Structures are given as structure tokens and as C-alpha cells.
Amino acid sequence: MADLSIFATKDNADEGVILPVKINGRKLPLALKLFGSDSDVVQDFERAKIRKIGLGKKGKTDVDEEDIEELLDSQSKSAVMRIGGIYSYDWKKSKVVDDDPVILDGKTLKNDKESYEYLLEKIPAIRDWVIENSNDRDNFLSEGKKN
To answer: Measured between alpha carbons, how far is 75 from 12 in angstroms, rounded to an integer?
Structure first.
């Protein structure tokens, strides 16, 4: 019998997976819960983004300056909506530290949109990491990916 269950990434994409953050080879004491690009929430956002700039509508054949600004702004919004949680992470123990708050510039980050936006504003490289890892289906395999 050929069981393809481990390749069914949709459920994990919808539920989200917690991944430790490593940027440019540096391990941050941080893990983020990410929703995958195949999740309903990400797909709905991406569809709304395309509808907003109106591509494909009658008479709309190209992208203007306003559309470009909207697309650039939507990159940050796209990263924010892919995050489902912020956690302290202990790399030596390879686990989330539940009772240890994440603090950035004296501000305690919570599991809310404001904190996600603040994190990405202060550390823009995390925005790229979020998009990259959300798009990487290997992260959403049933057996998971070793980061």
C-alpha cells in the first residue's frame, strides 16, 4: 500500500507549525508559529490582494504606481497574517520555553497583530524569513522538517 499521508501538507498549513527562527546562520531565541501558503487564511489574503489591484478586470491590463505601492505594502501584511504565535526558544533543548516572554526594545511581545507588526518593523529580515518558511511545503509535512 502506498501511503501518501506525510505529504498531505494542507492540515498542517491551516493549523500552523512552530519553527525556531534562524537568520543568516544566527539562531534567535525565538520561535514563530507559521501558517503555510496553502492555508485558507493565506490563500484568502492573496486572492483579496489580487482583487484589490484589479488585475484581470476589463480594461485593466497593467500595474500602475499605486498598485506597486499596494503590492509592496502587502508584503508586510502578508507576513503578519502568516504568523500565529511568538515564543521564546531554547536551541540547546530544541524546545519552546513557555514561561519566558519575548522582549524587543523593552516591549513584551504578545500573540497579537500589533506585536507581529512591531517584530517585523524592528527586524525586517524576519519578514523575509516568515514568507520563505511559510512557502516551504517541507515545513508542513507530517513528519516535519529539521530546521
So the answer is: 22
How far is 107 from 139, CA to CA, in rounded Å? 29
- What pLDDT score was predicted for residue 49? 77
Helix, strand or coil, per DSSP, at residue 12:
helix
Residue 12 CB neighbours (<10 A): 20
Beta carbons within 10 angstroms of residue 137's beta carbon: 16
Strand partners, 86: 32
What secondary structure letter does DSSP report for 138? G
Distance CA 23, CA 15 (A): 24
Per-residue pLDDT reduced to its tens digit, 26-76: 999 999 999 999 999 999 988 887 777 665 565 656 666 776 666 666 678
Cell numbers given for 119? 517584530
Contact 67, 8 (CB under 8 A): no
Q: Cα separation of 65 and 131, whole Å?
A: 24
Instruction: Write down the domain spans for the chain.
Output: 10-140
